Amino acid sequence: MKLTVIGCSGSVPGPDSAASSYLVTADGFSLVLDLGSGALGSLQRHLAVPEIGAIGLSHLHPDHCMDLCGLYVAARYAPGSPIPRIPVFGPPGTSERMALAYDLPLDPGMEEELEFHTWQEVQRIGPFTIRTAPMVHPVPAYALRVEYGNKSLVYTGDTGPNDALVELARGADVLLSEAALPDNDPSNPADLHLTPSDAGEHAKRAGVKRLVITHVPPWFDRDTQAEHARRTFSGPVEIATPHAVFDI
């Protein structure tokens, strides 16, 4: 199983990165986790639109889903279209939300190009088993555990600190964790995002093998966020950067 970072900028696209998007591949199957603002262009450096096996959305904030609008256009109008419908897994109401985002009638919305499914606690997508857990965020949001053979990747999506994330990440090979807030800032909102120390603490409690810090907004420094995560997690701490590849 291989993880390729497509976009890792938190909350908005940054000067060197699209917003959240990650490509997970195994056995020739390509699973895209989130497709945030600007990510579709970066994704096409790694595969063509018809090669997308499925898409999983952690939640429906624009920095995690809005490039589905561009994907809809490519699937409908690019040479060689129409292509087989691309499965999209997400929170309840994903189909309706994306139709509204492109000002489409709710019926059919994007359903002729994209095949929408609501997350279940466990589902099989290509060669992967995906386990989900609801997170703590202002909108319905999920952390995702991707399992392939005896390997596992857990992606936090966006969340405040919570025990469900620790349980989902138990023993994972990689925890891909957001760290959008600064440490030790009394103005940090509750139940919104993790700080680097939160990310490290969750990784420690879950006993993960590696922690990869991501979703750092462009107004914060990735290296600083990773260094702060090392305060609470003694294992390897790495930084997601655009087009970085992690073997799992």
TrEMBL record:
Residues 18-215 form the Metallo-beta-lactamase domain. PANTHER family: METALLO-HYDROLASE YHFI-RELATED, ZINC PHOSPHODIESTERASE ELAC PROTEIN 1. Gene3D superfamilies: Ribonuclease Z/Hydroxyacylglutathione hydrolase-like. It comes from the Bacteria. InterPro entries: Metallo-B-lactamas, RibonucZ/Hydroxyglut_hydro. SMART domains: Lactamase_B. Signal peptide: none annotated. Residues 181-200 are annotated as: Disordered. It comes from Kribbella aluminosa. Transmembrane segments: none annotated. Pfam families: Lactamase_B_2. This is Ribonuclease BN (tRNA processing enzyme).
